[in-house]
Amino acid sequence: MAAPATPSAPPSYDEAVVGGADPAYPPAQPAYPPAQPAYQSEGYPPPQGGYPAPQAAYPPQSTEGYPPSEAYPQGAVYQPQPQPQAAATSYGTSPSDDVEGFSAQRSLNDKSIRRKFILKVYLILTAQLAVTFGVVCLFYFVDSVRFFVQRNQAMYWASYGIFLFVYIVLVCCADFRRKTPHNFIALAIFTLSLAYMTGTIASFYHEGGGRTVLIAIGICAGVTIGITLFSIQTRFDFTSCGGFLFVFAWSLFLFGFIAIFTYSQILYTVYAWLAAVLFSLFLAYDTQLLVGGRRYELSPEEYIFGALNLYIDVVYLFLIILSLVGGGNR
To answer: Which spans are transmembrane here (predicted)?
Structure first.
């Protein structure tokens, strides 16, 4: 019996290329049948004439009627336009903020609002000064009233307590001083108390025969009008000097406290002149807060606060001038 045939060795590279492969190795079958067209695999006959050639997605656009685009010039550099700088705001806040009655610089840009606000404040201030100097003249020229207020010092200290209490309320309570009619009632009480104090102090300068108070009123009126006009037209911003005014006022307070125990007329005169300078600066400061257009300004709702500050400046300036003019007649 013949032995089974042993398969030959694998074909060489040349035999495989030429086609002389060993029949023991059958040709490799494709793993997957070739893909058929969709119409054949689904049983549909091909369309007559075959499939049309694909069309362009977008037809070419005609360029007629449009000028040829110009090339960007070589070497040109884009120059950004400078942007306008925003105006400085008050207290480091945004223009819409309102901090304790102070607002940003653009809050009073409307001229009609500004004029109405200024007019309202000065009308209130005029009424306050009319009442105050009316009381001063009454206490100064009517002998019976003058003797009464000089003998009853308790009423002076009572009016001083009312003055201090109402002043703290109006300064610290922003909502209260903006609410009508509470703000006008409080301002009226404040005005009457300070008017009584001013009239009582003026009654002790009667030795000059009436000239002392009239001279002091005239000087105070002239200084007030001059400082007001200067503050409105000057470019110097007094509203940015709040820190300096605070230090000046505190130093003057300590100086006056020490001067009480010296009983020196020269020292008292120096103190009075420094106080006159201080309240003149305060008058310029408060005037620019009212008029606006500076670093800080008052909100249009703060007409009571504006009138209160100007009223105190004018009255204290009058008392200081009265002490200087009538220093030898006390």
So the answer is: 121-142, 154-172, 184-206, 212-232, 244-264, 270-291, 303-325
Provide the residue type at 105 as one letter. Q
Rg of the chain on CA atoms, in Å: 48
Residue that has been written with the tokens 């003249």 in this structure = 137
Q: Which two tokens stand for residue 115?
A: 């004029």
Query: What span, in angstroms and rounded, lies between the C-alpha atoms of 173 and 181?
Result: 15
DSSP state of 33: P
Edge-to-edge strands of the sheet including 98-99? 98-99, 102-103, 297-298
The two tokens of residue 11 are: 């074909």
List beta partners, residue 218.
Answer: none
> 280 near 219, Cβ under 8 Å?
no
User: Residues of the chain whose pLDDT is less than 70?
Assistant: 1-109, 208-210, 327-330
The residue type at 186? A
Question: Could you read off the pLDDT of 254-305 as tens digits, one per residue?
Answer: 988 888 887 788 888 899 999 999 999 999 999 999 988 788 888 888 999 9
270 DSSP assignment: H
Question: DSSP labels for 44-90?
Answer: PPPPTT-PPPPPPSSPPPP-TTSPPPPPPPTT----PPPPPPPPP-G
Beta bridge partners of 98: 103
- What does residue 102 show for φ and ψ, rounded to 5 degrees? -105, 135
CA-to-CA dists, residue 283 to 140, 149, 288, angstroms: 26, 30, 9
CA angle 15, 16, 18 (to 5 degrees): 65
- For residue 254 the two structure tokens come to 């300590």
Tokens 């960007």 sit on residue: 72
Q: Which of 129, 314, 121 is nearest to 222 (CA)?
A: 314
